[in-house]
Structure formats: structure tokens, C-alpha cells
Amino acid sequence: MSRDHVQSAERSADSAEAPFLELLARGASADAYEQPVLLARAESRPPERIAALEQAKLLALRVRSEIEGRRRREAELSALFETAHDLAGLRDLDAVLQAIVQRARSLLGTDVAYLSLNDEARGDTYMRVTEGSVAARFQQLRLGMGEGLGGLVAQTARPYVTDDYFHDERFQHTQSIDAGVHDEGLVAILGVPLMIGPQVIGVLFAADRRARVFEREQIALLGSFAALAAAAIDTANWLTETRSALDRLGRANEIIRDRSGVIERASDVHDRLAELVLRGGGVHDVAAAVSEVLDGTVEFAEPGDAPPAALEASRTEGHAVRHGDDWVAAVAAGGELLGALVLRGHPGLDPVDQRTLERAATVTSLLLLARRSASEAEQRVRGELLDDLLDSRDRDPRLLRERAARLHANLDGPHVVLAARLDAASADADQEAAARRRLWSAASHLATTRHGLAATRDGGTVLLLPLGPGDTATSLARRTAKDLGTAVREGVTVGASAPVERLATRPDAVAAAYAEGQRCLDALRLLGRAGDGAAAEDFGFVGLLLAGDRDISGFVERTIGRVVAYDERRGTDLLRTMDAYFACGMSPARTKDELHVHVNTVAQRLERVGRLLGDDWQSPARALEIQLALRLHRLSSAAPH
């Protein structure tokens, strides 16, 4: 292929991106991305132009899909937090149920959401509240236990999902149910149980009038929302029953005051937990708030740190269980065990306080799930930006700076690229993969806290961290190796590049710095320094071979800089004396003949060199570095300026 043809193809590829960037900027529909290709074919453009447009279209559609996915995740988390806020102020059962279905529909972005409650007297479940429904027969449905999707959820206490209800043979289809679903036009349906402890009180549904696959994350989110919704229904029922009891016991003023205090206390706890969720509190904030309410010490424990038997019993029963003088409430979401809230040294716990602890565990699970989703999204964004800096050479500096600013990173300041790898390789593939995930997680956390970036690469992790005041590439590498090793509980070796700046305008510098960091990493492992961190400057003259920019002046300065400065200030001849000394086989007698000075003069000069460079300057390793530095200094001084 001729050079002109290659250049023409490159220009075609560059210009092909323009119409799709405009479509991305104005948020066009997916169908609109076909127009530039169709127009090019209609105008009989060259094949390479059409191929470039096709490639640019696919890339733009992938970017559009990623943007839409992130917007959807943000909307889901926002709806979840808004729900907690709304439920905190509700006291009427009808208002609670209406808020639940409204938020469920908003949470998953479905056409319809509805809620059924179990009728223990009749042994079935009936439609209680709908949102987005238009069919009267559907709104009046009753489902026997095991009938239809909803009856199966109510009977088994497990979530069920179908992307095409009428063609799904797993469910017991009945004429009345199918007629109601047909009137409503529903196709895809997701149902999750509303549970108070082990008891199913109803089913929460989200449904679409078109085929749709509900993702595992959506099922888990709706399940977690259903747990909060069940607690809210339970609270509303409980408050209703309590008010009725208070009305019947109007003459018993003391009982009324006590019961009222219990109600207000439960309401206060609910409001405080909801407020914590809204202002971005963490699990330890929840534990502190419940500690204050229960007048005890409540701690969050990881799954491995909680009493196993009590934790499993709480998870199975859905209630806090007693363990000696402590109480344990499992923190779970979507079937996954996330930890436990442990109330210490409080053997006597009344039912209200027990329910408070259980409700706090539910809120904690929501917080952990939301934090995990947000953290994973941010980690992916940081990794994608670093991947672009490592792999791309033609990125727009302005866009790179904007993306970095959203992550609280500044690409214009001095940074160091660090290559990190686990020291010990496991024979078990699953254990090896788990260890790498732990390293990636620790590196991502480190990058977030230090306003840097992290990505997985070449079986290890690469980090881009800012160089702080007083830091060097060496100190940053050693501190990073220590922090990562502590986090993953095994040795991590880290090789660092020399500092690099203005990364937004010099994206190629990041790839070169990463290669230098890898060379330092390999050198550390070859030298038996696994688990350590270092930069090229730590390897003496070997560092000249490792460094990407061959920092000769830096090597000379580190090795004999103090002698050079002494000669310049005092007008002495120490450098020439050292040259002659090494040339004469380190013999003072032969050196004095070479310099035509007295042997005492040679001894005095060598003693001065020792004070400047250290007593070990004549050791074999130091002597080799010093001779190389003298030769490089002499060559650089003789070079024309």
C-alpha cells in the first residue's frame, strides 16, 4: 500500500469520527447513528471512507451505551435514597403502599409496578396497589398460592423473573390471571417477596409491556428495596395497631404514655436512620446512632468476625438473635451475607429494641450495596482514564483534564507511574485470581484516597500517583509497596518511573514511564528484593539502563556532585586528582608522579574526597560508579554548548 493511500485512510478515519461525536454531544437516538453511513453509501464514497464510518459508528454506539448505563445506575441509586427519605415521614398504610410502588417503578424504569398482600384467611394473595396500570380486571386480580408468577413468589418466598410471561412454562397459568395480564399487556415481569422475618406478607412487582431481561443487579436492588418496604409496611401496621390499642385504653393514662413513648422512639429511630442514608453516612455512623438509642455498644462486624452460628441463625430467621450477653443481626442483601450488627453486653432486649437493631441492619445493607455500586463505578472510570493515557496518543488534552477533574485528579502536576505485582504465585488458579482482585481493589482504594488513577495490566496493577512535597519516586514506591502489602496481606513489589509532568499534553510519556516502572520492578525481583519498592535512581549506574530518559546528569550529580561543587567553589583540583588516582591503579606514589605534586598533597586531596563522598568511596562497587561518573562528567564538559 502506498504512503499516500495510507495517509488518505488515516485522514478518512479521523474525519469519520466527527458526525458521531456530534450525535453523542446532542444525545441522539441509536437509529440516528446509521445516517452518516447511509449518506456515504448514497454518495458513493470510497470503500475505506465507508469502512471508517462503520468502525466509528460501532465505537460511538459503545460509548453511548456506557453513558446510558451510568446514567441509569445513578438514577437507580437516587431513587433508592429518595425512597428512604419518603418512607421516613409516612405513617398511613395506604400512603406507604402507594409510595412503595411509585418508587419501585422509578427504581427500575418499568411501565408498571404493583404490590400484592397475602390474605391469610382466604389463603391467597390479592392486588393491593398499582402504578401505571390501565386495566380494571388486572387491578382486581387475586392469585392462589402457587398460581402465576406472583403466587409462586408468595408461596416459595423466592424472587422470580420472566422475560416473556405467556411463553414461560414454569408458572401455573390460570384463565383469570392470564386474562388480567393480557388486558394490561404485560410481557416481562419481576417479582420479589415482601418479608417480615421468615413470613411472606406480599409480593412487589416490576413489569414491562415488552420483552426485557432483568439483570442480576436490578433483582438485588429491588430485593433490598423490598426489605425496606416490608419494614415500612410492618411499621405502618404496627403504628395502626398501636393507635387502636391506645384508643381502647384511653382510661389507662400510664399505659398510654408508655406506649406513646415506644411509638415515638421507634419513629425517631426510623427518621434518624433515614437521615443517615440521605446525608451519605456510613455503616459506622449507623452503629453509632443505634448505640445511642439502645444505650449500649453496637459494632459492625465483617462476616468472618461475627459468631458463625448466631450469624447464620439471624440470616435464616430474619431476626436478631441472642448470643451470650450479645445480640447479633445479620446484614444481608439479595441473598449475599455482608456482615452483622452486634449489640454488646445487653442480654435484656425488649421487642421494640430488637426490631430497632433489625431495622438498622436493613439500612446498613442498603448503604453497603449503594457504596459498593458507587465504588465499582468510580474504579472503572479511573481505570478507563489510565488505560486511555497508556494506550492512546491522540486524545484531546482538554477532555483528558475534564475527566481527571471529575475524579479530583490533576494531570498537569508531577506524577509517578508505578508497576505493582504480587510476589508469590499460587498454584491454584482461583486463588491466584482472588489475590489479583484483592491487589486491584487495594490499588483502586489507594488511587482514590491519593487523587490518582489505577488500572489492571500485564498480570499486575499500574498506578498513576501525584508526587507530593518532599516526596521522591523512591519514597513513593516504597510507601506504596508497604501499603498494598498490608492491604492484601502478602508481599507486593513496586517499580517506579522518574517523575513526569503535563500528562494531558504528553500522553506518550505515561506509556514510557510505565515501561520504566516495569523495568525497575523486574530488576527488584532479579536482585532478590521482592516486596520492596524502588525507582531507577536507586540502582546506581544500573539505573541508567533502567531509566527511560537516561538521566546522565542526574547520575553524575548523585555520584560525584559534591566534589564537582567543591572544586567550583574553592578552585581545587579534586576531580583531576581522582581521575589520575584511578588511572594509576589507586597508587598514591604513581599518582603524585602523574600530577607532579608531593605525595602528601595527594593524600590530603584523597582525604578531602573521602569526607565529601563517604569512607566507602574506594570500595569496588562505589569505585566503579565513581569512575563511570567521572568519565561521563568529562565527556559532558568537553561537549560543545
Automatic annotation (TrEMBL):
Pfam family, one: HTH_30
Stored Gene3D superfamilies: 3.30.450.40, PucR C-terminal helix-turn-helix domain
Name recorded for this polypeptide: Diguanylate phosphodiesterase
Protein family membership: Belongs to the CdaR family.
Domain named GAF: residues: 92-243
